[in-house]
Amino acid sequence: CTHNDKERVSASTLQRFNEPVITFLDGKLVNALPTQAIVDVGGVGYEVLIPLSSYDKLPAVGQTIRILTHLAVREDAHVLYGFMTAAERDLFRLLVNSVSGIGPKLGLAVLSGMSVTSFKAAVVNSDVAAISKISGLGKKTAERIVLELKDKVGVAAAWEAASATHGPTPEQEQANEAVLALIALGYKQVDAHKAVHDLQQKGEGRGKSAEELVKLALKRIAAGR
């Protein structure tokens, strides 16, 4: 290793440590789509990629917002990922940092396809079938997720305890099943999620089974509403 090589390594290391760390944004929501949001912070617009779970929690455009962020530094770009709850960001980071073959794109897909509590319950119960229905994931990836996360010291035990006290409500479970069923029928994840979420928001889905939610959602999608 030459002196010049050492200098290059040293410069590279310093550059890595000097990368900005952005943990949250406080500002005004300028624009919102199911996959991204733009936040105005002091006159600077930040584009943030988000999962559907966070899209549901966004305030109205023009309102103030605090969104938690994760900055991914690539050779060609700095990309901000945003989350409306700490639980979403924690799960995203765990997936990206702990599961081989899972990058930010699939991390967002997991959060878009299942609630945090439902996903944790699926991992604890080794429910590969449920996880593999998430758009972008196959059976092999789902098996790897379960295997590698359950092997993490303390993760499964902590999630099991959390699932017992903060598990999804029966209504949330039925909604999640309905979304996965629509995805399995070939509908886009965004469309399936929006149709079921709209039914719940307007009260039409209250007390309905997953099968009934799917039928109502199919009518809504067919009507273009």
Structural notes for this entry:
This protein is of the alpha+beta class and 225 residues long. The chain has helices at residues 3-17, 52-55, 86-98, 104-113, 116-124, 128-132, 139-150, 155-166, 170-184, 189-201, 210-222; strands spanning 24-32, 36-41, 44-49, 64-73, 78-83.
Question: What's the structural blueprint in terms of helices and strands?
Answer:
Layout: H1 3-17, E1 24-32, E2 36-41, E3 44-49, H2 52-55, E4 64-73, E5 78-83, H3 86-98, H4 104-113, H5 116-124, H6 128-132, H7 139-150, H8 155-166, H9 170-184, H10 189-201, H11 210-222
Parallel strand pairs: 3-5
Antiparallel strand pairs: 1-2, 1-4, 2-3, 4-5
Order of strands across the main sheet: 1-2-3-5-4
Task: Quickly count the helices.
Answer: 11
Radius of gyration: 20 Å
Q: Indicate the structural class.
A: alpha+beta
Distance between the termini: 64 Å
- Overall shape: globular
User: Proportion of β residues?
Assistant: 15-25%
Report the biggest beta sheet as strand number plus sense, adding barrel if it closes.
5 strands, mixed, barrel
Order of helical and strand elements: HEEEHEEHHHHHHHHH
- DSSP, total strands: 5
Mean pLDDT: 79
Residue stretches low in confidence (pLDDT < 50, at least 5 long) are: 1-18
Helix content: 40-55%
List keywords for this structure.
225 residues; disordered N terminus; alpha+beta
